Amino acid sequence: MEIVHTIKDLQAGLSALRAQGKKVGLVPTMGALHAGHASLVKRCVAENDAAVVSVFVNPTQFNDKNDLVKYPRTPEADCRLLEECGAAFVFAPSVEEMYPEPDTRRFSYAPLDTVMEGAFRPGHFNGVCQIVSKLFDVVQPDRAYFGEKDFQQLAIIREMVRQMKYPLEIVGCPIVREEDGLALSSRNARLSAEERKNA
Fold it and tell me: 8: how many CB neighbours lie within 10 A of its CB?
């Protein structure tokens, strides 16, 4: 497994694979990986010649800056899990690498992005589309894998791919749950016992 931090290094590695006619899959993540992420990566590994997993806490999708600061970051554990799953590349760029200048693009997929979570987190899905489209442009994957846990996000990404005519397949993967039925989530570690019960 190769850990790369720049677009240039990642694309150099992927160009060598593509020259051999290899298929590339992408699993975009924000790190703090768990068994839910592992299920996506294992499927990506099984269905492609090489799996690229991005580990990047994307600042443009956080409308609450405190949430961005508190978001869990576990890079060493993430890399151990990804190596066990068979990932070929871990792409862990800096914010400056992904956003050398402010991204002023606006994505609008109403009503998909204006209801449910979109109504309570203004700008969130725009930030998701900014980073996911950047990753698609950088990696140029044949397939990209997303969990059905974030079902609204999955629907919006499918619509973005359709409208922007990205030549790739979006693969939705089943939710992985904990024993008490709660969907595995990086944020669950921050829940109190009472909050967890309510969730």
Answer: 11
Question: Which helix or strand (DSSP H or E) is residue 35 part of?
Answer: helix 35-47
Task: Report the DSSP beta bridge partners of residue 53.
Answer: 27, 90
pLDDT beyond 80 at 188: no
Is residue 93 within 8 A of residue 144, CB to CB? The reply is: no
Residue 100 has pLDDT above 70, yes or no: yes
- Residue 193, H or E segment: helix 193-198
DSSP for 100-118? SS--------TTTTTSTHH
- Among 5, 34, 37, 124, the active-site one is 37
37 is catalytic: yes
Would you say 139 and 9 are in contact if contact means Cβ atoms under 8 Å apart? no
Nearest to 56 by CA among 160, 132, 137: 132
